[in-house]
Amino acid sequence: MRNALRVFEEVAARQPAGLSELARRLDLPKATVQRALTTLEASGWLRHDISQPGLWVVTARFSVLADTSPAVIAARDASRPFLRDLRWDLDGSPGFFVLDGDRMVLLAGPEETTLRTLEAEAGPLPVHVSAAGRAILSCLPEATVDDIVARSMPDDPLLVARVREAVAAAARDGYAVVDGEYQPEVGAVAAAVLDADGEPVAALAVIVGAERLGRGGDRAIGAAMVEAAGKVSAVVAERTSP
Predict the structure, then answer these.
(1) Contacts (Cβ under 8 Å, ≥6 apart) of 76
(2) Domain co-membership, 42 together with 162
(3) From the CA atom positions of the chain, what is the Rg in Å?
(4) Which residue range is the domain that position 226 belongs to?
(5) Residue 112: which pLDDT band, with cuts at 50, 70 and 90?
(6) Which SS3 state, helix, strand or coil, does residue 175 take?
(7) What is the mean pLDDT of residues 25-45?
(8) 3-state helix, strand, coil in the chain (%, to 5)
(9) Cα distance between residue 182 and residue 241, in whole Å
């Protein structure tokens, strides 16, 4: 079951995807991946690509059941060109993240392998050590932030105070910064993507070496993230307004 879920996630992230590519990226035997693909096809989750029968894609069933909000879909699609530009402009690993309960989920990014490798090594990305998470929290009502912090963080008053201070700084500056809190020597800067009502629906984040965050580096990167997130927000507002 675990292998099947890994195969499904990889296909969803890279579709259309072939057997050899999946086996290589997941570091699994081809026979194992093939069994998972066959099982997922029989269950209605995957199918062969119509134009490239040797490759696999996710079926419409997943899209229907996922029921992702129109704002998130619009934001994800609008973010792709900006993520590609940020990759080269900032020499980092950018991604499009959404809040899922008390953790962050990566939905798009030109360097998803790098980001997913970090998650595989360090575990699911808790909202309180995520720059994207803090950027989103900075745009939410105080009561909602209190609830998320209470669910996602250990009972450590000093840590809670430090995170709340970081969220307040993100609200003031327009971007959030994480320096070595998820993984040592790894930094991240993020800005929230807003819908037409000014509510956060996602965040753009870029992972860089923590050494780049000193001497004003975080401000320069933050300005680029705020600009990109603002442009994506404008597209979301245009596409989802009545």
Answers:
(1) 96, 107, 108, 202
(2) no
(3) 19
(4) 68-240
(5) low
(6) coil
(7) 86
(8) 55, 20, 25
(9) 36
